[in-house]
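Section 4.2 – Deliverable D4.2 (structural model, holo form)

The reporting period included a commitment to supply a predicted holo structure for the target in complex with UFG. Inputs used:
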Amino acid sequence: MILITGGAGYIGSNCALELIKNNENIIIFDNLSTGHIETIETLKKINPNLIFIKGDLKNLKEIEDVFKIHKIECVLHFASLSVVQESAKIPEDYYQNNVIGSTNLLNAMVKYNVLKIIFSSSAAIFGQPKYLPIDENHPKNPINPYGKNKLEIENILDDFDKKYNLKSIKLRYFNVIGANRENLLGEWHDKETHLVPNIIKSAINQKPFEIYGNDYNTKDGTCIRDYIDINDLIEAHKLAYLYLNKENKSDEFNLGIKQGISVKEIFKTVEKILNQKIDYKISQKRQNEPSILISDSSKTNKLLNWKAKTPLSDSIKSAYQWELKLQKKSI
Ligand code: UFG
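Output (structure tokens):
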């Protein structure tokens, strides 16, 4: 059985869906602090035998019980608080949830001799880029508590490999966008902070979209990011799982598509796809934002045999269809 922590969230649920489609037996463990029970219900419609446990990684006993009762072979660890700006406001919650929660999970794994994990890490571990594109060996100097949490967990994973032979694959996500192809699951945050859903919400609700700063040292003054479609990202998890089973060694991979796109370019692409002018204004910069983040995913392409396939326009179309569904409350 595969344990998915954070399976009620955006990325964890999309991964759960794919594994269900591949007839894998899965258990979802989620405290529903940011994920949604409706997401679990959607997954249960596809596989009524899916086991969902409402539990919190901060509580060691709750996660130990999962390993005690079920025969787990591998863990996919998505559970995390993940809003960069929020992490600077409430670092204590971020350290508790992300670092202590992950440490509890790893201790429970070792106790029950489960020695394989795929970990959702982040481009935030790199901090301000020293060179571009960012490969796996780029210096790691995170500039916010969220990035520090993710790096700390990566370090703990390495120490657990040395001491307990626990093998981990760390996947460093760049900017994930889009919904799954059948429009069953997509990005759903109660307070949305991300670029693509925010532009789409502005279009649907006729409210001005806010561009956070237009005087960055980039071609059009707005930040540049590397946007990866959720379906391509999930494909990389499947390949990482196969790689871990085959090689039985720890490794790390950057997950982006090696293409930098500015906030303005994304905005214009959404306008074009929706065939609609969207009102916008320039707002204050977020604090400590890297102006450019682009992934060098050559290692991922080569060792995992992974290639991003989804055009940006398809990701935006799927994000739009999903947002319509969310707003009609027809999840
Ligand atoms: N942006 C806006 N207006 C908005 C929302 C975002 O201008 O309403 C801008 C941001 O300033 C940024 C870009 O759009 O320049 C992308 O912002 P997101 O919030 O979508 O994503 P981030 O790059 O801030 O963060 C994402 C993930 C993090 C992860 C990080 C790694 O959400 O979890 O990438 O680089 F840590």
